[in-house]
Amino acid sequence: MASFRDLTRLFNGLSLVANELAKRSLPADFETLIKNTLVSATDLSGITKGKLRQFSNPTQRHAAASSSVVFFTDHIPSSQSDSILPPSATANIDDVAFSSSDANVCAAPEEKSEVVTAAETVNHGANVEVAPSPPLRKRRPRERKVPATPFSRALGFAGLGAGLAWGTLQESAKRLAFGTPNPQGNQSALSPFLSEKNAERLALALCRMRGAALKIGQMLSIQDESLVPAPILAALEIVRQGADVMPKSQLNQVLNAELGPGWSSKLISFDYEPIAAASIGQVHQAVMKDDMQVAMKIQYPGVADSIDSDIENVKLLLNYTNLIPKGLYLDRAIKVAKEELSRECDYTLEAANQKRFRDLLTDTDGFYVPKVVDDISSKRVLTTELVRGITIDKVALLDQDTRNYIGKKLLELTLMELFVFRFMQTDPNWGNFLFDEATRTINLIDFGAARDYPKRFVDDYLRMVLACANGDSDGVIEMSRRLGFLTGMESEVMLDAHVQAGFIVGLPFSRPGGYDFRSTNITQSISHLGATMLKHRLTPPPDEAYSLHRKLSGAFLACIKIGAVVPCRELLLEVYKHHKFVEKNEILSTVSVCA
């Protein structure tokens, strides 16, 4: 019966997609379009496979540069080969930074499967015995054209729906024959719709579609296992690793349309093999006429125009998978996501954000924001100075003093952005923070998700953070009502859960001295209260909270990841000491600011 309901919902969804297609005016070359989109649909449903792109691995890349790097001038400096990728970078491709979201492009040896385990990646071609390791699933990137029209993208989602329906039928038949598998841990038995194969099919389809669909999948990948079913978490890990890449012909079309056919005259060289492929665009390394090494972020065609339809289709799939719990106010989250993604697709706005951050942090030790190259940038292409460093998750391998320093700088930056600048880069992706060991500087990249916060909101939020740090229940409730987290009509159960969650978040700021982020699992503690708050909450959080809490949780998770010990309370009180509130009479007592 449950399987029948799953299929009914799915086919209803497909009918909605079909209705949407019927409303659209059909293009002139309809026969060609139908042929191409049907191929895309079968590809997305898993019936056909795309072209596997053979990417060089880090140790091969320098030697293979001539195959992907195109030179546009006869005058090549003697150091040009090093300019494309210096020897220091060939040792570790992760040290090459770029103005993009998360995705490093992995090596892709020719194999049958599109998804492999980490052990297969490491041991490919080796004849030595190794100890078995937990299966970390990785994805081999493929070269596929981006579905660029609303019609082709809608049909792609329809193909995905057909694939999910087929997967549900297979899983249902399997369970009829062999019984329902026992749930793991404290999770309940999952719907056949949420089978491992279907979860993988969903993840791979998002990687192929790219755009807003993949972006939302990457946002969902930062979740606690108690909130999201295990198969979906495993699939989202595949999503987090990155997207497929545009073929050279489509890439040239975008560059010619955005920069004009003479764009190459401004460069010495351009590497057609991307150093990253993320949700909205892919990143290529190039060298300017003045020998400056740059990163060119090139947006996938059609993604900016398909944000609304993509998100509605993702919402449809999320509803059918029951992935989103009741009480999350999905419609409000979707509205905010559309606004944020629209801003991220405007590279002219991102360039302005990056320049603004560069000015704000000019006199701040420990941070560097790369230059924007306006001469070869547009609304869909962003060119910036190439900076180098190791991503935050790799910092965990460094000594404790260095990790403490980086954790302190990350928290200092987060507090400064919100309470001093009132202008924050809200993407917590670890790849956006690159540590240069030689200069002890954190290079900051990717400012598409930057936004301003109203003065009154910032004032009340600072008061609430201090109340959480000091265990002040009345202060937490009062500020939460003023900010819009509470209506004033909540039950005692909801108020208690809300206050306790605030105290958990305020724990790092509660005592003077260094706070060891490994001492308490903050995210797990919050998730235990999440079910109660979702059940009893009466209003969605204010719009500002979605991006802000994503960034704050990212900063905490980064400190947990690297095992940093940070004097959080001292950093907070220093900000509070110099903060100028709009209202002169403080709501919080003077006792609350004592160290």
UniProtKB/TrEMBL annotation:
GO terms for biological process: ubiquinone biosynthetic process. Keywords: ATP-binding, Nucleotide-binding, Transferase. One of its GO terms (molecular function) is ATP binding. InterPro entries: ABC1_dom, ADCK3_dom, Atypical_kinase_ADCK, Kinase-like_dom_sf. Belongs to the protein kinase superfamily. ADCK protein kinase family. The keyword Transferase applies. It holds the Pfam family ABC1. It comes from Psophocarpus tetragonolobus (Winged bean). Residues 239-480 form the ABC1 atypical kinase-like domain. This is ABC1 atypical kinase-like domain-containing protein.
